[in-house]
Amino acid sequence: MSRWSLYTWRRDGRSLRRALPTLTLLATLLTATAGVAAGATETIERDILRSGGLTQIELSSFEGESSVRPLTTSALKDATKVSGVSEVVADYSSTLYAEEEGTYDLSSHTLSPGTDLPVVEGKIPSQLGRNQVVLPAHAQGTDFTSSLGQSVTFGYTKATGADSGSTALMKLEIVALYDPSWQVDGPGVAYVSEETAARLAAARAGQQLELFRAKDGAQSATVVVSHQKQVPGATKALQAAGFSASPVSDRVRQLPGLFGAADMAMRTGVVVLALAAIGLGAVRAGDSARSRLSQFAVLRILGSGRPELRRILLGEAVLTGTVAGLVGVLVGTGLSAATAAPLSDVLGLPISVTDALPGPAWAAAALLLPVLGLAVGTLLGSREALRRDPYLTARAHS
Questions:
Q1: At CB < 8 A and 24+ separation, what contacts does 203-210 make?
Q2: C-alpha span between 259 and 38 (Å, rounded)
Q3: CA quadruple 123, 109, 36, 363: dihedral positive or negative?
Q4: Which comes out higher in pLDDT, residue 160 or 159?
Q5: Beta-strand pair 138-139/105-110
Q6: Cα distance between residue 231 and residue 54, in whole Å
Q7: How far apart are CA 321 and CA 22, in angstroms?
Q8: For the segment 102-111, what is each residue's pLDDT rounded down to a tens digit?
Q9: How many CA atoms lie within 13 A of 165 on its CB side?
Q10: Residue 222, SS3?
């Protein structure tokens, strides 16, 4: 890069510096979305996969999907027979609500194996009993701290007809309380044993427990294998048996909601940034060269060749791309770090500032793509203008 490039880049308003704002914005967006996706991925892998998710497979049952095997009693027994499977725990979803005092209305789920709840008070037993429950420390205006260790009466719905139902009561001992910000299954979830979850779901459906489990089946189920190396083989065997099966490690890495959009945005951003840099380079270089034809004509008459003039434009492209990349990475990193706390509330898992930093590969992409793209565009866009006869050009502008 010649000193002429630096001089014209700083002094001449017609230089490729005009592409700086657009490229800076694109580099900023790429870096920020990469940080958001990195923070979500790191948090999920730390808090879910390392708590046992690497050895788990999720089975799903979709109503009305004839190709998916329902998770009935017989189906779950077949799943336990698959090689490598050590345990199958079904999840039945229902609702527990306040009997008299309080206004809470809590979703109930089976406490799946390996679920690492951030317990703040009490202790979760190795096997949750049929009359035990784990609640958030507080939910929907109700503080459960004072009820820890006590048996509390909860209401639940018991269907009495096609469109009618009544309130039934159930006493459950609150054995532990977890941090309410942990919302992997949603806000305000009551975790119970598999049998209790099935009993609540069966009552809501207006069926006997065993009939409900044999006919309707579970909403989902967690299959646990002995070693993570057995996950691929067990997944294929379950899929061959008609189950909708996917490794938990794959499912949680397919980030939901905002984080899925961020992950897609950063991958799309690489393509957009590269194409935009090339396009801007071609357009801006062509415009810049045409608007400075008289200057370039004088330089060529004085002995400068087209390669030297092209080096001046390439120098401007490198300066513009470098500044855009550096500013974009710095501002994008700051944005992703600043949003770590708000995004923790969205995901329901703690994201630290260091988690939200973009990976080296994405930072390098934001740094290099503006330079490379603008350079390629400059080579393409300046060809026509630099081919013109300098003497004719100088005479036309004299």
A1: 203/94, 203/156, 203/157, 203/158, 203/159, 203/168, 204/94, 204/95, 204/156, 204/157, 204/158, 204/159, 204/165, 205/159, 206/158, 206/159, 206/160, 206/161, 206/165, 210/73
A2: 9
A3: positive
A4: 159
A5: unpaired
A6: 8
A7: 11
A8: 678 999 999 9
A9: 15
A10: strand
Please determine, for residue 7, whether its predicted confidence score (pLDDT) is greater than 70.
no
pLDDT at 124: 92
Check whether 149 has a pLDDT greater than 90: yes
Confidence check: pLDDT of 302 > 50:
yes
3-state secondary structure of 16: helix
What's residue 394's pLDDT? Answer: 46
pTM over 0.70: no
Give residue 94's identity as a one-letter amino acid code.
Answer: S
Per-residue DSSP letter, 15: S
Is the pLDDT reported for residue 308 higher than 50?
A: yes
Closest CA to 258 of 21, 36, 29: 36
**Contact between 47 and 355 (Cβ < 8 Å):** no
Q: How many CB atoms lie within 10 A of CB 199?
A: 20
The upper half-sphere exposure of residue 162, i.e. CA atoms within 13 Å in the direction of its Cβ, equals 0
pLDDT tens digits, one per residue of 327-385: 989 998 888 888 777 767 665 666 777 777 887 888 888 888 888 887 777 777 666 55
Question: Do 163 and 180 meet the contact criterion of CB atoms below 8 Å apart?
Answer: no
DSSP strands (E only) in the chain: 56-60, 85-91, 94-98, 105-110, 119-122, 132-136, 138-139, 142-143, 151-159, 165-178, 189-192, 220-225, 244-247
Q: What confidence tens digit (pLDDT) does each residue in 247-274 have?
A: 876 655 544 444 555 556 667 767 777 7
> Considering only CA atoms, which of 130, 131, 133, 155 is closest in space to residue 144?
133
Residue with tokens 């400075």: 292
Alpha helices per DSSP H over 92-175: none
Structural tokens at position 240: 């061959």
CA–CA distance, 26 with 138 (Å, rounded to integer) = 42
For residue 220, pLDDT over 70 is answered with yes
d(CA 251, CA 58): 8
